[in-house]
Specification:
By secondary structure, this protein is an alpha+beta fold. The longest helix is centred in the N-terminal third of the chain and has 18 residues.
């Protein structure tokens, strides 16, 4: 099924097919079949032009031949290995590599590219499997150049270049698709186009057109006041500084999510493995945060269980009884919230069912039973 049957699109396909057939020394029909493939339709962004790909090899500032001997080949820059075109899938594979690179956030003009082309080519190859079995270093660089991504030459000697995509996003994808890798436990560094492309690939491989085009979302910074405060403590020589260092390492390695609020830090503490002294550091950090923040939000812990059931009442009419259980801050007990909604016996109560937490935490005054919140006992100590 051809991606687009308009006159303009057909002319573009034909022009690209003619150019590609000449460049790769294959017949026109085979080239047109590749150009028209649903896998080459441009799954993220517009279809990459074969003529653009060809011109980049001559005109690009870094990898272009500029009328002389080719600078880029199958193994990379400054390599004399010739291009190996099979006449059946070479353009399709380049188009898919281009789409994969598009899902990353490009580095800004002031940032030096950090991701090596050889490492990136392996990641792209694993992500595109089974649709692409092999991506050469040269083709990865070629696709990046055609996209206009920042590219630098790290040493002026080897075949590899540095590609301007987010290092954190590349590490996330590498760990998601690489064999023997520890999978990310959080998604704040997941490339924005990852889920879309992962879904679109098998659809295109089945011959389907992707009607709904991907649009890169606007980057909106979510407020993270507790995170911002905690990472500022990283140089301290105490348990808060140690916690800040471990926390930031976990964020950078996608080992856990970002703690935008103090209670999210407490939730993260229960989600990951930790040392025996980590809980004290968490409580101390939260207490200091609540003491210094002008209007800190109280701590709500994670719900565990809860239910409401009908009750026949005690002579004044039927009602309901509700009971909800939440994890206590240390994780060894519970916070119990109960509501007796029975005429004549309406009672609402919440309490900490943990000896350790009763000593270290208290309910913030002035809040309803349903709106309860906790603060460390030391939070208001000057």
């Amino acid at each position: 099924m051809a991606p687009n049957n308009t006159n303009g699109a057909r002319r573009a396909f034909q022009q690209d097919a003619r150019a590609w057939s000449v460049f790769t020394d294959t017949n026109y029909t085979s080239a047109l079949r590749q150009i028209s493939s649903p896998l080459a339709q441009g799954l993220i962004g517009p279809r990459v032009s074969a003529r653009r790909l060809i011109s980049v090899l001559n005109d690009h500032e870094l990898i272009g031949a500029h009328g002389g001997a080719p600078r880029l080949s199958e193994r990379g820059i400054r390599s004399d290995s010739p291009w190996n075109f099979n006449g059946k899938t070479d353009y399709i594979e380049l188009a898919l590599v281009t789409d994969t690179l598009r899902m990353f956030t490009p580095t800004s003009g002031s940032d030096t590219p950090e991701v090596g082309s050889y490492s990136l080519k392996h990641t792209v190859e694993q992500f595109l499997s089974p649709h692409v079995s092999y991506v050469s270093n040269g083709r990865l660089i070629w696709a990046a150049a055609a996209l206009g991504l920042p590219i630098t030459d790290p040493d002026g000697a080897g075949p590899n270049l540095l590609i301007g995509v987010s290092d954190r996003e590349h590490d996330y994808l590498r760990r998601m698709v690489g064999s023997g890798q520890t999978r990310p436990q959080a998604n704040h560094y997941r490339p924005t186009g990852y889920e879309y492309l992962r879904t679109a690939l098998p659809q295109a491989a089945a011959g389907d057109l992707i009607a709904k085009r991907w649009v890169r979302p606007e980057m909106v910074a979510e407020p993270a006041p507790f995170h911002d405060w905690l990472i500022q403590q990283i140089d301290r020589d105490d348990i808060v500084g140690d916690l800040a260092g471990d926390y930031l390492a976990g964020v950078r390695e996608s080992g856990h999510r970002v703690a935008r609020t103090a209670d999210e830090l407490l939730a993260i503490f229960h989600e990951i493995s930790h040392s025996t002294g980590a809980y004290e550091a968490v409580v101390t950090s939260i207490a200091e945060w609540m003491r210094t923040e002008p209007a800190p939000a109280p701590i709500r812990t994670e719900p565990i269980d809860g239910a409401a059931h009908d009750h026949g009442g005690w002579g004044a009419g039927a009602g309901t009884v509700e009971r909800y259980e939440f994890m206590c801050p240390c994780g060894d007990g519970r916070i119990i919230e109960e509501h007796d909604n029975i005429p004549g016996f309406r009672e609402h109560d919440v309490w900490i069912d943990c000896d350790k937490c009763r000593e270290e935490w208290r309910f913030v005054e002035g809040r309803s039973v349903r709106g309860w919140g906790l603060e460390p006992v030391v939070a208001n100590v000057a």
